[in-house]
Write a structure and sequence with these properties.
6 helices, single chain, mainly alpha
Length: about 180
């Protein structure tokens, strides 16, 4: 089986998994508790199908990706905020500190990612390519800062006895696997 066919297979399986998990959250009523995660899962399915059905070399694919990618960053951040809020629900002071740390870390990571990209973008670069370069750099910063934040939360939780419900633990593992 060629490697691109294997990647397509796993993309379709991932979309099926997201759809089934979203359906399970809806049927069990947990979509009310995990609002942003539910929205992320439900929006991931049509988004992924559109990306898989569009021609990668077309302008429509490029424009669709350019418009929708920042919306998914927002969902990533909201899901991590939701996760942090669920973990630290009983500890309001720690939750506020975590929110500030996440906001500051996100700003620093995105800024550093954009600064590392600036030497590569010349005035002769086509405008759409510049935009895509900035989007990729910003995505790198957002993903990196959220990963570091989640690792720091896990480090914090391993050092201090903050009890986690089973659902919150599963929620964090599933979100890590889908992101």
């Amino acid at each position: 089986m060629p490697s691109h066919a294997l990647v397509l297979f796993f993309e379709w399986v991932s979309l099926l998994g997201a759809g089934l998990l979203g359906l399970k959250l809806f049927k069990s009523g947990l979509y009310r508790r995990y609002r942003f995660f539910f929205v992320y899962l439900i929006s991931l399915v049509p988004y992924g199908i559109c990306l898989l059905l569009l021609d990668v070399n077309s302008g429509l694919y490029q424009k669709f990706w350019t418009v929708t990618t920042p919306l998914f960053w927002l969902l990533y951040v909201l899901v991590v905020f939701e996760l942090c809020g669920l973990i630290l629900k009983k500890y309001k002071g720690l939750y506020t500190l975590g929110r500030w740390a996440m906001g500051a870390g996100l700003a620093v990571a995105v800024t550093l990612s954009l600064l590392t990209l600036l030497p590569r973008i010349s005035p002769a670069t086509p405008q759409l390519s510049k935009i895509m370069g900035y989007i990729l750099a910003t995505e790198r910063g957002v993903d990196f800062s959220l990963a570091i934040f989640i690792l720091l939360i896990l480090l914090f939780l391993s050092r201090y006895p903050v009890p986690l419900s089973r659902n919150v633990a599963v929620h964090s593992v599933v979100f890590q696997s889908f992101s």
